[in-house]
Amino acid sequence: MNEFEIIKHYFTADSGRKDVIMGPGDDCALLQVPAQTLLAVSTDTLVSGVHFFADMEPSALGHKALAVNLSDLAAMGADPRWVSLALTLPAVDEVWIKGFCAGFFELAEYYNVALVGGDMTRGPLSITVTVHGTLPEGKGLRRNGARIGDGIYVTGTLGDAALGLKAALGEARVPAAHLEFVRNKLEHPHPRILAGQALRDIASSALDISDGLAGDLGHIVTASGVRAQLELEQLPLSEAMLASVSREQAWQLALTGGDDYELCFTVPESHRGLLDTALSHCGVKFTRIGRLVPGEPGLELLADGGPCELDLHGWDHFRSRP
């Protein structure tokens, strides 16, 4: 099959969305943006050998390629609507393409997201996804709204995807009973769309945890001009994590591992009761892990009643490594 046959056969399904006036097949997609809404847009690229193993199951890769982008919409509290996909393939492999599409479109259908365009070319395997969502005017969870006295929260458990990666690389021994769990955390992240929407009128700031809690929370404290105190003993850790590594190693993975795609957010004390109600309706577990205090923007780590020192360097594509 040539490029255009592949696109027509695999990537032009009708989503049924009435706000898609023109989808794949023309020079541009034409989309109907509702009145009195803001458009939220985010783009991510996944590169073979950098973001995923070259032999990763294609259906899992299709899922993850879309999920990590939807996680950005969740962090803004946006409603997902449309997605475009730029796919670079070393060769035409219809079995691989079929598997990739199965994972991609299953998640797209779950969140009622329409594929409205993109591109396909030949080269080293990489996937670039751009998602579009909408927000009511005046809404949107940003990084610069945190204030002194706000509590710091996260959804889910932290560090499991990083533990799954270490297990795959032979750098950590995970008990057999937990291997599938950590692998799914690495390959099948679940964007917290409903939680983000529920936090629109409650949280003062939010972002998704893609590069490690320490680095991502650092964006909030820098943008908001506040200081964060984290209680390491409050970090939510899974049974798999506790069964696989020491307490200090678990903290390190939770703070710097990345690929969690959970939400980190801050909430004023006055909204604490609203938070309990809103997220319980979403079925999302969340944990208070610290608070914002006066001082220079940065992170203070506390454990066993006193300060704690850990390496807080998270993922950075261009940071030199030994």
Automatic annotation (TrEMBL):
Mg(2+) 2 binds at residues 44, 72. Mg(2+) 3 binds at residues 27, 72, 208. HAMAP family: TMP_kinase. The keyword Metal-binding applies. Keywords: ATP-binding, Kinase, Magnesium, Metal-binding, Nucleotide-binding, Thiamine biosynthesis, Transferase. It comes from Zobellella endophytica. Mg(2+) 1 binds at residues 43-44, 119. This is Thiamine-monophosphate kinase. PANTHER family: THIAMINE-MONOPHOSPHATE KINASE. One of its GO terms (molecular function) is ATP binding. It holds the Pfam family AIRS. Belongs to the thiamine-monophosphate kinase family. Substrate binds at residues 51, 259, 315. Residues 25-134 form the PurM-like N-terminal domain. Residues 148-295 form the PurM-like C-terminal domain. Reaction mechanism of ThiL seems to utilize a direct, inline transfer of the gamma-phosphate of ATP to TMP rather than a phosphorylated enzyme intermediate. Mg(2+) 4 binds at residues 27, 42, 72. Its EC number is 2.7.4.16. It comes from the Bacteria. SUPFAM superfamilies: PurM C-terminal domain-like, PurM N-terminal domain-like. Mg(2+) 5 binds at residue 211. It catalyses: thiamine phosphate + ATP = thiamine diphosphate + ADP. InterPro entries: PurM-like_C_dom (IPR010918), PurM-like_C_sf (IPR036676), PurM-like_N (IPR016188), PurM-like_N_sf (IPR036921), ThiL-like (IPR006283). One of its GO terms (biological process) is thiamine diphosphate biosynthetic process. The lineage of its organism: Bacteria, Pseudomonadati, Pseudomonadota, Gammaproteobacteria, Aeromonadales.
